[in-house]
Design a protein that fits this description.
With 454 residues, the protein is an alpha/beta fold. The chain contains 19 helices and 15 strands. The strands form 4 sheets. It has a 7-stranded mixed sheet, with helices on both faces. A 4-stranded parallel sheet has the order 8-7-6-9, sandwiched between helices. β12 and β13 form a beta hairpin. α3 runs antiparallel to α5, α5 packs across α6 and α6 runs parallel beside α8.
Length: 454
């Protein structure tokens, strides 16, 4: 029996403001650095890359930032999203813990990514940008931005990681259906892509290569602006609608979370889901925040906290965060959205300050958890989401062994209905665990030169 207990908020309770975690953190994040000078980036540098409103949000110290009514109206397509209690999973694990999940798979594009895509498309339209150019891994972000740009009447160009471009054609078809252009990365359309293919004709691509091609394109076209699906603070800001709704739903149930769990590639759903609880944690609430990431790209678990480039070519600003090195190329795993060498700076800072912890999981164990969840509850999670499910299951088992009653809440960041090829590989017994390439992991260091004192 599909045993799910559902809790909804009325449409009128869609958040009116995004929550900005910056005022509540123990310290401010380190400056972004200009890749050419090594000095803190100037506003003009950032405004050539991003719409001005997003540049302002990046450094704002206002705790609450109003959501434009046009964006909030678009949120009404699917928000507020439900909070479920997974009774069947609890019974299967024989755990005294209560397991809840925030279901972001209800969005029209299938994941949490649309929360920020709509905001970014709105601000780009308001500023008169000709086109937003972006990167995408598995295609969830590219799908969300393609749809958002279509709704607000502007163009999008998406560089999709080649490994996913070839193995996840339905995501590409989704973007193209909304009238947007999708190109493989690395590809022949940029100087960076051509050079990379000349040296490595079978290069699978990574988020970092796609970012490099997107940035090169933006620099060559005055009317283009870059759009990020994670990494930047303004993206995590927009995603806080997820955590704000979750807080309200738990409060209505009279529940306090003991564990908050989310998958992390760069950190957009982790930040959006968990950051609204950071103030409580820093004020003394006993809340553990856990990031679940792939063993093939264990940024928070095995990376180092230092300055590094956000892209493979070093065109974009440098940021201090956990990184495996901008030259690191993760193996082609099915969780394409988690194949990024560095964490979002705010997520990296939270990890460095002890606000959150991380665990890395092998691919087959992740798909085992995703398939089990689908059979118990009838919801097929995206491979990225299945990392959070795996981590939540492990926590529930630990609670069973300790006879601990606890409330575990995880972010169900997106559905897996366009990832059936990956599940087919798993159920056929053809899936293998993927470990980081030792050569590329070594290539991640040494760190790029940074002026003394940085």
């Amino acid at each position: 029996m599909n045993s799910l207990e559902r809790h909804d908020l009325p449409v009128a309770r869609i958040p009116k403001r995004w929550y900005n975690v910056l005022p509540d953190l123990p310290r401010a994040p380190d400056d972004f650095l200009d890749p050419g000078t090594g000095e803190p980036v100037r506003t003009e540098f950032m405004e050539r890359l991003l719409p001005k409103a997003l540049v302002a949000q990046e450094t704002s110290m206002e705790r609450w930032i109003a959501i434009p009514e046009e964006v909030r109206a678009a949120y009404r397509l699917w928000r507020p999203t439900p909070l479920y209690r997974a009774h069947a999973l609890e019974r299967h694990l024989d755990t005294p813990a209560e397991i809840y999940f925030k279901y972001e798979g209800a969005s029209p594009s299938g994941s949490h990514k649309l929360n920020s895509a709509l905001a970014q498309a709105y601000y780009a339209k308001l500023e008169g940008c000709d086109r937003l150019v972006t990167d995408t891994g598995a295609g969830q972000w590219g799908s969300a931005l393609s749809m958002a740009c279509s709704l607000f009447g502007i163009k999008a160009l998406v560089y999709m990681v080649r490994a996913s471009f070839e193995t996840k054609p339905y995501r590409r078809h989704f973007m193209e259906t909304f009238g947007q252009e999708v190109l493989p990365s690395p590809g022949p359309h940029t100087e960076f892509g051509r050079n990379l293919l000349k040296e490595h004709p079978d290069h699978p691509g990574s988020e970092a290569t796609a970012v490099s091609e997107a940035l090169e394109t933006v620099r060559q076209n005055a009317g283009d602006r870059f759009s990020m699906g994670a990494f930047a603070g303004h993206v995590l800001l927009h995603q806080t609608v997820v955590g704000l709704e979750t807080r309200e739903q738990l409060e209505e149930l009279g529940k306090q979370p003991d564990f908050l769990v989310a998958s992390v590639g760069c950190g957009s759903n982790m930040g959006g889901f968990a950051f609204p609880f950071v103030g409580d944690k820093l004020a003394g609430a006993d809340i553990s925040i856990l990031a679940a990431e792939p063993a093939a790209c264990p940024t928070l678990t095995s990376g180092t906290y230092r300055y590094d480039f956000a892209d493979a070519s070093g065109l974009g600003p440098m940021a201090r965060t956990y990184t495996l090195g901008h030259e690191f190329v993760p193996p082609p795993i099915h969780s394409g959205g988690l194949r990024y060498h560095g964490a979002a700076p705010l997520v990296g800072l939270a990890r460095h300050e002890g606000i959150l912890d991380s665990r890395a999981y092998a691919q087959k164990a992740v798909f085992e958890a995703g398939a089990l969840f689908a059979r118990l509850h009838g919801l097929l999670p995206a491979p990225e989401t299945a990392h959070a499910i795996r981590a939540a299951m492990d926590l529930a088992v630990e609670c069973r062994e300790r006879r601990r009653r606890a409330v575990i809440v995880f972010c169900y960041s997106g559905h897996g209905l366009l990832d059936l090829g990956a599940y087919g590989s798993y159920t056929a017994g053809e899936m293998a665990d993927a470990e980081p390439y030792e050569t590329t992991l070594a290539a991640g260091g040494p760190a790029p030169a940074v002026p003394a004192g940085r």
